[in-house]
Structure formats: C-alpha cells, structure tokens
Specification:
The complex is a heterotrimer of chains A (490), B (433) and C (421).
Chain A (H helix, E strand, L loop, with lengths): L4 H11 L4 E2 L2 H6 L14 E3 L4 H14 L3 E4 L16 E4 L6 E5 L4 E5 L4 H9 L3 E2 L12 H7 L6 H4 L6 E8 L4 E4 L11 H5 L7 E9 L1 E2 L3 E9 L2 H13 L6 E6 H8 L13 E9 L1 H17 L4 E4 L2 H13 L1 H4 L6 E4 L9 H14 L3 E6 L8 E5 L4 H20 L18 H4 L2 H14 L16 H6 L21
Parallel strand pairs in A: 2-4, 3-4
Antiparallel strand pairs in A: 1-2, 5-6, 6-10, 7-11, 8-9, 8-10, 12-14, 12-15, 13-14, 13-17, 16-18, 17-18
Helix pairs in contact in A: 1-3, 8-10, 8-13, 13-14
Chain B lengths: L4 H10 L13 H6 L6 H12 L8 H9 L5 H5 L6 H15 L5 H12 L4 H17 L1 H5 L4 H8 L16 E2 L7 E5 L4 H19 L2 E4 L9 H5 L3 H19 L8 E3 L2 H8 L1 H4 L4 H13 E3 H6 L17 E5 L3 H4 L6 H8 L4 E4 L14 H4 L1 H18 L3 E4 L2 H13 L5 E4 H8 L4
Parallel strand pairs in B: 2-3, 2-4, 4-5, 6-7, 6-8, 8-9
Antiparallel strand pairs in B: 1-3
Helix pairs in contact in B: 1-3, 1-6, 11-23, 13-16, 21-22
Chain C lengths: L2 H11 L4 E4 L8 E4 L4 H14 L3 E4 L16 E4 L6 E5 L4 E5 L4 H9 L3 E2 L12 H6 L7 H4 L6 E7 L5 E5 L11 H5 L8 E8 L1 E2 L3 E9 L2 H11 L8 E7 L2 E10 L1 H14 L4 E4 L3 H12 L7 E5 L5 H12 L2 H4 L5 E5 L4 E5 L7 H15 L5 E5 L18 H11 L13
Parallel strand pairs in C: 2-4, 3-4
Antiparallel strand pairs in C: 1-2, 5-6, 6-10, 7-11, 8-9, 8-10, 12-14, 12-15, 13-14, 13-17, 16-18, 16-19, 17-18
Helix pairs in contact in C: 1-2, 10-12
The chains are: A alpha+beta (490), B alpha/beta (433), C alpha+beta (421).
C-alpha cells in the first residue's frame, strides 16, 4: 500500500527538513531493532519533533490506511519496533526535550524520545533519580520503556516502568491527541495510562510521558558474592526471597558472561574464573542497609560463597553496574549474534530452571550464558550463535521455545521485561487460551479499531487451538533467504 | 556470496556488532538527525548489507552516510562488543572509493589535499601561501559567499600565521637543566603550518623537562587523514615513509626512543599502524615496534611534570578558569582522559571546570569541517553552549583540528575566550630549570 | 423488588440461595445470588442475557457507593461465596485467591509465612479480595508500598457474555500480554466480574511503632508531618485526623526490628512529646485507627487529591468551603489527611444529604483545585445527585472508556451509569 504523492508531500510539509526519510538505505537501517533475527522494511520513516507533528502525521497516515510502527531507540529485544507489515515507522529520536521538571512533587514530563539515562542525569543534582534502569538505559528511550513496560535490575525494589508512569500524552491511530498527562494519584475513570504501558505500540504512540522521580536513598551498598557455580548463587537468591529481605537489586552473572564483560570496555573487576557472581545492591537508611548487608552476607556464605565483598566507593559501584549492563553487548565477543530469552519463573525454582535451560542448550550444541535479574525470577538464558548458519538458527529457536515451554509449565511466563513483540507472539498460546487472547483483541480494538498500530505484534496471528494442532510456524528465515528487502542489491 | 578481500575484512568486523544500540547516544550525527542510518549501528548495518550484496555500494545515500560520519570514534568507547568502528569506516570508505566514480567536487578537494599537498612540505607551504594570501588580501572574504556553505567553512578558518611562525623546529632542541634523555617529536604536516607555536611549545616543555628533542624532516604526514577518508593505499605508503624516517633517526640509540605526538588524531593513527600494515609481512613487525614507541604529549608529560619545578600559569589568587575538551582521538582513540586533566590540575593559577559532554565531538574531524561546514557547526553548537555555560576563559585542547574548530566557533559566537593547546599552557607555566 | 427476577433466580439457584442486598444505604433492596462456582456465575449471567437483566456485581458490598451511583439493576451478583486461597507461595511472596475471600482471612493466612498484604484496609472482615481490587482501594500504607493496582499480578475474570478469561499470572514480574489487571482494578465491576486474583506480598513487619501527637493547631500538625516525611524516615503511614479544630498526627513505623528501633529514635527527635505505642499493641491500635476513621457510613464522604506540595493549600480551600454558611448547618465534617499522598477526606455527616448543595460543593472544589492537579470525589453520595457533579466523571479519554466498556460488556449487563455520564 504505497503512500500517495500528495500524502508524501503533506508529510514533508508537516515534518520539515530531515523529518521524512525513505529509500533503500533508510529502510535497511530500520529493518530490525535489538532483535536482529527478524527483519521487515518500512516504506517510510518519520521523525517528528513534537506531539503536534506526530498527530498531524498520523492523521495523514490514517487517511491513507497505512500501518504505523513506533520506535524509540530500537534497543528492544522482541522485535517490537520491526516493521513487519511495512508502512510508516515513526521514530522518536528527535523528541528528546524535558517539558517540565517538578522537584517539589517529584515528577518530570518529557518527550518520548528522551534517553532513559538522560532523565536520571537531569535530576541527579537534585537528589532524585528515575528508577527503572534497563540494561540498555544508555540508549533506550522513555517512550520505548513505556511501550514495553521495561524493567531493569533495580526494578526488584522499585517495580517496572508502569509503577513510575504517572501520565501520558497519546496520539491515537486516527491522529487524535489523548492528553492524560496530569500526574494523578488515582486515575480519572479507567486506568488508561496503566493499560497503555506495555501495550507494545499496538494502542497508539505515547509522545509525552509524566514520570515519577524517586528520592535517592540515604545509604547504598553494593555487594559482590563470588560463587564456584551457578547453583550456589541461585540458591542464595531463593533464600533471600524466602527470608523476605528487601535489597534493591539481585543479579546473577555466570562464568561466560564474566569473561565477556572483563574483556570489554566495561571491565568491572568481576573475578575471572568464578563460576558465578551474585550482585546485590542494598539501599535505604544506614540501619536498614547495615542489617540487610549482614543478612545477605550470611546467606551467601551459607550457600557456599567463596568471597563476599562490598564495592569500595561510588566509582567501583558504578563499574560493577556498568559491567552488568554492558553484558549483553559484550557477548558480541563470543559470537556474532545473541538470542536473549526473557522468561520469568517463581523464585523458588530458580536453580532448577537455570539448570534445565543449560541442559537444553547443551543438547542442541549451543553456547549458553546467563546474566539475569535473579531477584525477580527473570531469567535471561542467552544463546550465542551466528545467523549465517541456518541450522544453528533453527536450533537456537527450538531451544528458545523449549525453555519457554519449560518455564511456563513451572508456573512462569514468556517475558518479564522485553515484551512479546514478534518473537514470542505465537508462544502466547503457551500461556493464554483463545478466550484470553480474544479479550485482549477486543481491548486493542477499543483503541485502534482498524488495527493499524504495530500490526503483527503481541497477539498471535492464528488461534491457539489451530496453532496447537499444527506445529508452530518457524518465525525467522535464515539470514540470506529471500525476504522483502528494500536494498537495491546487485 | 562473493567478497573481495577488503569487503570480507569489513564483513567479519560488522559481525562483532550485536545491534545493542548502546552507541546511539554518543553519536554526534545521530544526535543531529535522529536517523538510525546516521548512527554507528545503522552504518554498520549498511556496511553489512553491502557485504551481503543487499545494498549497492554505489548508492549515493550510502555514500552520504559514510561521508556524514565524523569518525570521532565516540561509539568505540561505549561498545561492549569492542567493535573497531573507526577502522571499519576506513575500510568501508576505501572500498566504496574503488567502486564509485569520483564525480563529486569533494573528491577533487580530497585528491588535491591527500594526493599531493599533505605529502610534500614544499607543496604544503605553497598551498598555505595561497590561503594566507587569499586571507590577507581579502579575496577569501569576497569569494567565500559565492562558494556557499563550503565557502563559509573556508572563511571561518583562522588566520594563517605569518611565515616566521611557521618555521620548522631545529633537528635537535637541547635539554635544559639536568639531562634525562632523548625524545623524538613528530612535527606533522598541518601543525607546523597552522600551529608552529604549538610545536615550539611542545619542544620547549620537553627540553625544560630535561630531554633532547629530536625531529626528522623526512617524515611529513602520518597519513591519518588519508586513512580516515578511505585512501588506505596512500595511508600505507605514508606510514612506511614515516616508520623508516623515525627508524633512521633513532639509529644508534640504545633503547627505543619515545615518539612524542602533540596531535591526538596523528597519535591515535600512529599507535594503530601495526594493524594498518598487518598484512604486509616485511613491514608488520616494524610497524608494531614503531607504534609501541608512540606516546601522546600528555602521557609523556603527566608522568614527569610532578618531578619538575612548580608550574604556575598565573597568580593562584586570581586563577584562570579553564575547560579541557577531550579530543576524540585522544579519549576515544587512545583512551587518554586522566593525564591532561592531571597536568592542568597540577598547575597553579588554573581552575579547571568540567564540561558535561567534554568527550563529545566538536565537529572538526579532520577535513570534515571544510567539507561539511553546516553539519560541522551544528555538531559544535551544543558544545559551544556548554563551554560558555562554564564561564571558562580558556579552552584547552590537544589536537590541531579541534583547535581550529573551537577558535572559529568562539570567534563566530563573539566570545573572547582563548583556545590553547595543552603544550602551550604547560610551556607558559613551567619555568626553565 | 422485582418478583419475576426473584422467582427466576430462585428456580435456578434454589429459593433459599437468593437473598437481598441494598445497593446503597438509601436504596431499595435487590435480589442477590452468590454462587460458589464458576458455573454458578455463568448460569446467573446466562439468565441476565436471556432476560436482558442488568447485574450489579459486588463482593460484600462495602464500597458500592464509592463510585458514582450505580444505575438501576435487576439483581446483585456477589462473589462472597466464591472464596478460598488457591495458593500461597511463601518462598515466592505471592498469593492467589478467589474473589470472595475476605481481606482478614487472607492477611491471617499470609502472616503465618511472614507476609503482609497491601493495602491496609479498614474493617478487613467486611472487605473481599475482589471488592478491594474492583474499587481500586489503596490504604495509608501506599506511602511505603504504592497503590494496590501495582500489586495485582494477575486476574481471572468473567465477562457478561460468559467468557472466562485470564490476564497476567502469579509472578512478581511479567509483561506477557496486555496489563488488563490495571484496567480491571478500580473499574467498579463495570467491565466484568473478578473471580480470582494474584497479589504480590510484603514482609510482615517484625516490629511496629504507632506514634501519635496532638498538635496545637493545623499548621504545626502539617509541619510535623513534613518532618516525618523527610529523608530521615520511611514511615509505613502518616495520617492527620481532626476532631473540631484539634489535629492529631499519627505515624506508623514498621519493618525490621533494627530499622524500626533506629527510626523510633529519629521520630522522637522529630516529634518530641509524641505518644508511642510499640510492639504487639501497635498493630491493633493502627487497625482501630483505620476502622474509626472510616466509621459506619454516616453520610457522604468527600475525597480530595492534589499534588503533594499543594496539600496544605487544598486543605485550606476545603476547610474554608465547608465553613460557608450553607454547609455549617448541614455538615459536621470529620477530617482526615494523608499529607505524604496529598489525600484529604471529610466525612460530612448524616445530615449532609441535599444533592444540590453537595453538587455545588464538589463543583466549586473541583474548580478551585484544578490548577493543583486536583481531583474531587464524593463517596456515598445521596441519591439524586447529578452524575457529572459527583466529580470523578472523567474528562479525557471518555470516548475511549466507552469503547472499552462496549468491547468487554457489549450488552451493558454490568450496569451503566458509573464513571461514564
């Protein structure tokens, strides 16, 4: 469905210089987000500067009946920003302004393209921070975080994005502006803001976001517990949860991840050769921190920690976290591509499921590493592979699915923070039945009756009964198989 | 799938990129446009598409994205996968230059500058003389508007120093006070022409620290600009000349003579010559040995300044406020951030202030500011505002391109702040022993 | 009461199983059934579809008059008999239970494993899990734990067309599918019936201190509260109550023993002269305080919410409005304020029943507080109050809310009128 010339001219007029991008080169750069396995080509890329431009552009696209995909920084790992149905991709990268900073009531109103870490930097000098800290926070945008309801290590204490979004300005599929930006304690009527967060761009585009800012704690301590193997680290985490301790983050990195990080620019000083490290941050009053540190240390030792030490000062703490957050990218040193699973499991079953994932990967001759939000039961079994090897790609996908099946069977879920997107769309049937999904479709149609917003994401294309009958379709073709590419190949 | 040698190399490197996007926020051109294809990750995706033959390297939009990149290498400092983006860009530009006819007028400028002028001292002076004449006679001022944006870039060049300021250093500047040893100093190609005073300050500091400072006239250009702009063959040729010249100069020294470089761009390139010549069996070893000798002025001096006499720039009760702007090829290219700051902090009469984005590119980027003046100024604009917000009176840099860019930007903004090379600051502060 | 409805229900559920419930304190009773199985709920909804009856879903009915008045309904469908804990996972800190289970029962159950529920609700024996969620109820402990809707991990719901659906799960972190929990929480039963819910649990405090301090005046009460809400303490709740012009500050410290001991010391410094109740007595005393603040329904209850920094100003505005001559005679306001959350409540008393007067009051307050992000609600509003005037009628997104409603309850079985004028 090509855009008419008149619509194209209108978009140029609305968005101004460098606001409309098309052609082979632009399409190539936008054909995937952080999940490089699946690609799609946008017909046109729009880069608005504010809500008004965004609304006007969506109005034009509505008249043309063109699908619309929103994109923050394209760091998502579930293919949420991949334009699988072509159409227009709306990038938020030029919408980075702070619209309001209210220190008294601790909230900020920002444009959707603001980079997560910039928000925290902005309010740091006032003793405040923005709590959700996805590992990609150096790049990912607040708008993208809203779309995916992103998490991060410190969400263990502070909760995921949805707990920090107080208001939104949403541009709906028909180009209308829905202003829900007033930070209210209770929603006015239904909680549209809460419903929108995590809707993966299928309801509309959030253009402005009112977020809660959190007061920096009086005391912080970061502990690094070194284990000979993953089991000890997992057991210690389960014990921490069972004892109802309340650190702000509980993370685990395994041997392979430690190696990769220590070779990278984010070298953090994790002990090389350790089987696993448990990274625990404790925040609060001096007393609170001291007692929790004491208990965490006791539990870690009881579970066989070889060493438990505290970060010496702010700079070492920062390094430990930068290393943790750079871990995903650092895996590029091991193989060209990385499949990041994002399953959640009950925290009583961490060890068992981490072990099972390892076994599945081994059976399929795949290289698996683990770096995850242990405290939340949010596992990231990462499989390194090379997408030029179609057979390996098949095995990776099969392993990914097996891991999901296993976790769901154990009371877990498909995704804890990366979203369903394209990648886990069909696996939704592992968790939900046709009725559950039909209701979700109905809710979606209340927002976007024509289903033009980010089509093909989150909800399975086929009914679950039907899909369970057949074997699930393989989602990704190997890299060089013919696909609809915009490239003007020779 | 078929690769030629060069694109195969590129391809292997694009595979390091895991598409995580951590580079985006650091990229000055992405900050400017918000367009993924002008980000490091986007450019790598394009290179990869070319290597996989999904994109024609002759596509002008591809060429535009390659040209648009400043090669500041900020992305390398944050890349967890360790992608060597600068090197990839050099290869990508080189392989594109081979398939794409040099139609654009830009090519001519490059050809003139790289093919000839920078390689020969004589021609450099001639080119310089012409520019100098044009500036002094006012021709440039009248001509510039008719050249469009590029003319504006030329017109904003600082005035070319008069010829006495452009004299080369003597082959040896003797150590003052207690002699500690010998060092070699790279004079460079642009430096003597535009910043002879910086070379003199560098030599003076080194001699005050007790070193005989030796130069060689057989080495002119290190080839960094050639490599950055895709002329890898030219860069290799210059590298061989350079290596040979410094080998010859050091002949007879018992231990490897450190080669002090006061231009961050040259230093970063010279430290990587081992990789540039790694496929040349007769040169790879020599290149690696040469690269190991290269040391930035700040590295060399920071280690020795504390032992020297107390450096004093001004009355400590009325200190100058200075801001240090990290040249990209020092902080990202050579990972040197601490030393220049330590040097400034050790000098009395200076109060150093930090700029929030001191590691961001100023937009100079070699000849970029001449080729794409509008983009270059747009990249500088936020930095300029940051500098002015600090209230600093002196901006300290350590690279000639940045030096020019800041001078032009500040004068355009009507600022009275001075731009000084780190060596100039140290030279002024450090008393003779 | 509609005899036909009563009889039909009786035929299906057995006459003995059909009771009555007064949907509002001032309304006529309606027939009520309370099935104890999903089939039972389905059967009731089937009847409603067949007869085009409108259904009023309730738990124990304690918060029915919280939202704007329900319109005419034909019968009440209660979840109170659909009760019981499905699973309590002490090692994972989660709880899944049927909607009719009372808050008291759930609290007792999880206390065994060292957990507590949030919110702290008044009269937990009279509140059901489904009711608390449907009403979007939060407590004063929100200061520490956040709003209830943030702790609902998953739901099982039944739509009026008989669709039994699930959303979320039993995990503390999960983004699989739309967050319909957030849609259902606070929807007052207008979208569907909540049958089962999973909640995140919190550590049961090892130690508690309940401090109360009688302030000489309102200003010093607010100033004291500000000190308690500063960086030195992280209180479980800070509440001000007033009897006449006399204001009392109540602060509850709870958590790990060492922390509470340290905070207790700090509190004594910040609030010299406070009367402190520690240990075993503190919990029940805090519950009593909650219960008494939300006494038996004795007239409308005004709830104001503003930005925290505007709390004192809003309190001034509200006090002044109610001191006006036309209210002085009919209202005997009992004030309660949570300065940390900027919630102000006034129980207006049984004599405040003039719909016109109350409408004027909420209207004028809504106007005055609008610049402070203010929201005004009137709980237990008397019959006959125009719906829009029961402030809480949403402005933005109204059309969308209506579409959501139509999507989930196309026939309008779950009663119209609430939220959506």
């Amino acid at each position: 469905m090509a855009l008419s010339a008149a619509a194209r001219r209108e978009l140029d007029r609305i968005l101004g210089p460098r606001g409309v991008v098309d052609g082979a080169v632009a399409s190539l750069a936008y054909e995937s987000d952080g999940l490089a396995l699946i690609r799609g080509t946008p017909e046109i890329v729009l880069l608005p500067r504010d809500t008004a431009q965004c609304a006007a552009a969506l109005g034009v696209l509505a008249a043309e009946g063109v699908p619309v995909v929103g994109r923050g920084a394209g760091t998502g790992l579930s293919g949420g920003a991949t334009p699988v149905s072509g159409g227009a991709l709306v990038g938020m990268a030029r919408m980075r302004d702070v619209l309001e900073l209210n220190l008294q009531d601790r909230f900020a109103r920002v444009q959707a393209g603001m980079v997560n870490v910039d928000l925290t930097n902005l309010c740091a000098k006032h003793g405040l921070f923005y709590a959700p800290d996805p590992s990609s926070q150096q790049a990912c945008t607040i708008g993208g975080n809203v779309g995916e309801n992103s998490g991060g290590p410190h969400c263990f204490k502070y909760g995921a994005t949805t707990r920090h979004v107080l208001g939104l300005v949403i541009v709906t599929a028909d180009g209308q502006v829905l202003d829900l930006s007033q930070p209210r304690l209770e929603p006015d009527g239904y909680d549209l803001v809460g419903l929108f967060v995590g809707s993966e761009g299928t309801f509309g585009l959030a253009t402005e976001i009112t977020v809660r800012l959190t007061r920096k704690p009086a005391a912080v301590e970061t502990l690094l517990a070194v284990f000979g193997d993953l089991d000890g680290a997992c057991d210690a985490t389960s014990d921490l949860i069972a004892e109802r301790l309340e650190p702000s983050a509980i993370e685990i990195l395994d041997r392979l991840t430690i190696e990769a990080v220590e070779q990278s620019v984010f070298r953090a000083g994790y002990p090389r050769g350790a089987g696993a490290v448990l990274l625990v941050e404790v925040e609060g009053s001096e007393t609170e921190v001291a007692t929790t540190v004491r208990d965490v240390t006791r539990i870690a030792r009881a579970r066989g920690a070889l060493e438990v030490r505290s970060a010496r000062g702010e700079s070492e703490r920062k390094k430990l976290w930068a290393g943790r957050k750079g871990a995903f990218g650092a895996m590029g040193r091991i193989a060209p591509d990385l499949y990041v699973a994002d399953v959640c499991v009950p925290r009583t079953r961490l060890k068992e499921l981490v072990l099972a994932a390892t076994r599945i990967a081994a059976e399929k001759r795949l290289k698996l590493s683990n770096v995850f939000h242990a405290g939340d039961g949010n596992l990231h079994p990462n499989i390194s592979y090379d997408r030029r090897n179609p057979d390996e790609v098949e095995r990776v996908l099969a392993a990914g699915r097996e891991i999901m099946e296993l976790c769901v069977a154990a009371g877990g879920s498909l995704t804890g923070e990366h979203g369903v997107g394209l990648e886990k769309r069909e696996e939704m049937c592992l968790v939900y039945g046709d009725d559950d999904l039909a209701v979700m479709r109905r809710v979606r149609e209340a927002w976007d009756p024509a289903r033009r917003m980010n089509p093909g994401k989150l909800l399975p294309v086929r009914g679950c009964r039907e899909a369970r009958g057949a074997s699930l379709p393989r989602r990704a073709a190997p890299d060089h198989a013919p696909q609809a590419h915009g490239g003007s190949g020779r | 799938m078929s690769f030629n040698d060069e694109s195969l190399v590129d391809y292997a490197r694009t595979l390091d990129c895991i598409h995580c996007g951590l580079c985006l926020r650091t990229c000055p051109t992405y900050q400017l446009t918000g367009n993924e294809s002008s980000s490091p990750r986007g450019r790598i995706a394009l290179m990869r598409a070319v290597a996989e033959q999904r994109l024609d390297a002759r596509d002008p939009a591809y060429g535009e994205e390659l040209d648009f990149c400043l090669v500041c290498r900020h992305c390398e400092s944050v890349c967890p996968a360790g992608v060597r983006f600068g090197e990839m860009m050099e290869h990508a530009r080189a392989s594109r230059a081979r398939v794409s006819p040099k139609a654009a007028p830009l090519r001519f400028v490059r050809w003139l500058a790289f093919g000839h002028a920078l390689r020969s001292r004589l021609l450099l002076s001639a080119a310089h003389g012409a520019l100098s004449f044009a500036q002094r006679s006012g021709i440039l001022g009248r001509l510039a508007p008719s050249l469009g944006a590029r003319g504006a870039g030329l017109a904003s060049l600082p005035e070319v120093p008069r010829s006495r300021d452009r004299e080369l250093l003597p082959p040896c500047t003797a150590a003052q006070g207690e002699r500690r040893g010998d060092v070699a100093l790279l004079e460079g190609c642009v430096m003597p022409e535009l910043f002879g005073r910086v070379n003199r300050a560098t030599a003076s500091v080194l001699s005050k620290l007790g070193y005989d400072v030796r130069t060689t006239r057989e080495a002119v250009c290190c080839g960094a600009l050639h490599a950055h702009n895709g002329d890898l063959a030219g860069a290799r040729e210059l590298a061989r000349t350079l290596i040979a010249a410094f080998e010859k100069q050091a002949a007879g020294s018992s231990e490897p003579l450190p080669i002090v470089v006061n231009s961050a761009g040259c230093g970063a390139h010279m430290k990587e010559l081992g990789r540039l010549l790694e496929d040349d069996p007769s040169w790879s070893g020599r290149a690696a040995a040469f690269a190991a000798r290269v040391v930035d002025f700040s590295e060399f001096v920071a280690a020795r300044l504390p032992d020297a006499a107390r450096a004093r720039f001004a009355d400590p009760d009325a200190p100058y406020r200075v801001a240090y702007d990290d040249p990209c090829h020092l902080c990202h290219g050579q990972q040197i951030r601490r030393e220049p700051r330590a040097i400034l902090d050790g000098i009395e009469g200076l109060r150093r202030v930090e700029m929030p984005n001191s590691e961001g590119c100023c937009g100079s980027a070699g000849i970029y500011s001449l080729l794409r003046p509008e983009d270059s100024l747009a990249v500088l604009a936020p930095k300029l505002a940051e500098f002015q917000a600090t209230g600093a009176e002196i901006l300290v840099t350590a690279n000639p391109g940045c030096h020019l860019q800041w001078q032009a930007g500040l004068s355009r903004a009507g600022s009275r702040a001075q731009v000084l090379h780190l060596a100039e600051v140290v030279d002024r502060a450090l008393p003779a022993p | 009461m509609n005899e036909q409805v009563l009889q039909t229900l009786g035929r299906t559920f057995g006459a003995a199983n059909v009771g009555t419930l007064r949907p509002r304190f001032d309304a006529a009773p309606l027939p009520m059934v309370a099935p104890s199985s999903v089939e039972g709920f389905r059967a009731a909804l089937e009847l409603s579809r067949a007869n085009r009856w409108r259904v009023l879903p309730v738990g124990l009915g304690s918060k029915l008059s919280w939202a704007p008045a329900p319109g005419p309904a034909d019968f009440v469908l209660s979840t109170w008999a659909y009760a019981g804990v499905e699973s309590y996972e002490p090692g994972d800190g989660t709880l899944t239970a049927r909607a009719g289970t009372t808050w008291a029962e759930l609290s007792a159950r999880v206390a065994v494993g060292g957990h507590a529920l949030s919110p702290d609700v008044p009269r937990p024996k009279g509140s059901t899990l489904g009711g608390v969620i449907a009403a979007g109820q939060s407590g004063a402990d929100r200061l520490r734990h956040g709003a209830l809707r943030e702790h609902v991990l998953g739901l099982t719901y039944l739509l009026s067309d008989g669709t039994l659906g699930r959303c979320g799960g039993r995990l503390v972190k999960n983004v699989t599918g739309y967050d319909l929990q957030r849609l259902f929480a606070g929807s007052h039963g207008t979208l569907g019936l909540i049958l089962e819910a999973s909640l995140r649990l919190f550590p049961l405090p090892e130690q508690e201190v309940l401090a109360s301090w009688r302030a000489p005046d309102r200003g010093s009460a607010l100033a004291a509260a500000r000190r308690l809400l500063g960086p030195e303490l992280s209180p479980w709740s800070v509440v001000l109550t007033a009897h006449g012009a006399e204001w009392t500050v109540h602060a509850r410290l709870a958590g790990r023993a060492e922390s509470v001991a340290a905070e207790h010391q700090a509190l004594e410094r910040l609030l010299p002269g406070a009367r402190c109740l520690a240990g075993e007595a503190a919990g029940p005393a805090a519950q009593e305080l909650r219960d008494s603040a939300f006494g038996e329904i004795d007239g409308p209850r005004l709830v104001l919410q503003v930005r925290p920094s505007a709390c004192a100003v809003a309190l001034d505005v509200a006090l002044e409005a109610l001191a006006a001559p036309q209210f002085r005679d009919s209202c005997t306001p009992q004030w309660r304020c949570e300065p940390g959350l900027a919630v102000i409540e006034a129980a207006l008393g049984a004599r405040a029943h003039d719909p016109g007067l109350l409408a004027a009051l909420t209207d004028s307050l809504a106007r005055a507080l609008a610049p402070l992000s203010g929201a005004v609600r009137l709980l237990h509003a008397p019959e006959g109050m125009p719906t829009t005037a029961e402030a809480g009628a949403p402005s933005a997104g109204l059309a969308l809310m209506r579409r959501l409603r139509r999507q989930l309850d196309p026939a309008g079985t779950f009663e119209a009128g609430r939220f959506l004028p």
